[in-house]
Amino acid sequence: MKPHLLNVSTNSVDSFSARRDVMPDVNNRWHYHSALELIYIKKGRGTQFIGDSIKNFKEGDVVLLGSNLPHYWRFDPEFFDENVCEPVDVYVIHFKEDFLGRDFLDLPENQEIKKILMQSTQGIQLEGVSKEKIAYLMPQIIEAKGTMRIIRILEVLTEIAHCGERNTLVSLGFKPNFLENEKDRIQSIYNYTISNYKNKIELKEIAAVAKISPNSFCKFFKTKSRKTYTQFLNEIRVGQACKLLIENNLTVKEICYDCGFYNFTSFHKYFREITGKTPLKYQQAFSKQ
Questions:
Q1: Does residue 174 belong to any structural domain of this protein?
Q2: Of the candidates 85, 84, 87, 91, which has an alpha carbon nearest to the alpha carbon of residue 43?
Q3: Which residues in the chain come in under a pLDDT of 50?
Q4: Of 116, 139, 168, which closes a domain?
Q5: Burial environment of residue 232 by CB neighbours within 10 A (0 to 12, 13 to 18, 19 or more)
Q6: Domain range holding 22?
Q7: Are residues 144 and 206 in the same domain?
Q8: CA distance 149 to 141
Q9: Residue 208: how many other CB atoms lie within 10 Å
Q10: pLDDT at residue 171, as a whole number
Q11: Which of 35, 74, 183, 229 could join 8 via S-S bond, C-beta 3.0 to 4.6 A?
Q12: CATH of the domain at 76
């Protein structure tokens, strides 16, 4: 399972990279890079894959990713439909841990920043007031010139370091395992599963997508993702169910079958295992927000 290695470069006058993306297909694949990444989804929705974590992303999300942590933001189909014209607006910052100098993080005043950058190897989802402040500052970093760029990114890193509401995304035991001859396999598995999760996906079917035997596929997927393919497929289906429950246009039973579950009892079981709530409780929690 080999994500694509991207070389994130800066020009000769910038110590870090900051950009705004308005198209859904920028680096729209499973990839990694040596730079840390901070991303703010101003507009857009879809499914995010980070290490061994799978969850929905939405407008307002802010995530910090550590060096060489594989990831993939797959936008929902409507963002690729020219007839729908759903807008995408994403701010992305890439920076090396030592972009301010090798000794900068060793200063006593910077220990909280150093600590959070070390934790970012698990991926960090930011919430609360800090998330709002970071979302406000990131566009300013892109617009700033000279020393103000450094000041703004330091404000962002300080805000992240002192954020009281944050969640790690990747399990502690996750270790990227990159083999050159497997580089496109996980991408094919992800794409096929997301496109066909409503259907019954047979083992031989998904193994053919990965271009390996069914027996080899089971071992391969469990070794690389630390979960079975059935668990992965159910996470995708439950993630889609969460979106539909929030939209509140279908009944729970309709959502069950629309998301590829063929048994209402199994739907409840897996939904509760993955989210910690029943479908109805999940829907009620969002309706109160």
A1: no
A2: 87
A3: 1
A4: 168
A5: buried
A6: 4-168
A7: no
A8: 5
A9: 14
A10: 84
A11: 35
A12: 2.60.120.10
